[in-house]
Specification:
By secondary structure, this protein is of the alpha+beta class. It contains three helices and six strands.
Length: 142
């Protein structure tokens, strides 16, 4: 692999997802963690899946804008919603699945679908998860 362009550094302390904290080395992110109520926890704080979903949605949105600019396409409005789910594995552990929902304005459906597929090929989160977890992607044109 080529030289690193950027390295994010975060540290988890305490009880991890069950009441710990996650902090980046620059202090810009400092969050309490809790197991979500849906998984039997107390809720009331963020969790790793929310952080992953926020990162992927933001990264994919940037990839979408990059590909659109390279193709000289004008998008008048856009949003990316990432859903990251915890799923049980056959071995008794846990895995992830994901769905990316992209809303666009200014393109027809065919162009939007092509743009979203191209963004999926560019996005580092998409590349990291490809073949590792089930991912669905859809585009809606407003």
């Amino acid at each position: 692999m080529s030289d690193k362009l950027y390295t994010a550094i975060a540290t988890s302390t305490g009880e991890g997802r069950a009441g710990g904290r996650a902090v980046t080395n620059d202090g810009l992110l400092d969050v309490a963690l809790a197991i979500p109520k849906e998984m039997g926890g107390p809720g009331g704080a963020t969790n790793p899946e929310q952080l992953f979903a926020a990162g992927w949605a933001s990264c994919f949105h940037s990839a979408l804008k990059l590909v659109a600019a390279r193709r000289k396409l004008t998008i008048s409005d856009s949003a990316v919603v990432a859903e990251v789910s915890v799923v049980p594995t056959a071995e008794g552990g846990f895995g992830l699945s994901a769905a990316l929902h992209v809303a666009l304005a200014g393109l027809d459906q065919s162009a939007a679908d092509q743009l979203v597929e191209a963004a999926h090929a560019v996005c580092p989160y998409s590349n990291a998860t490809r073949g590792n977890i089930p991912v669905t992607i859809d585009a809606t044109v407003a």
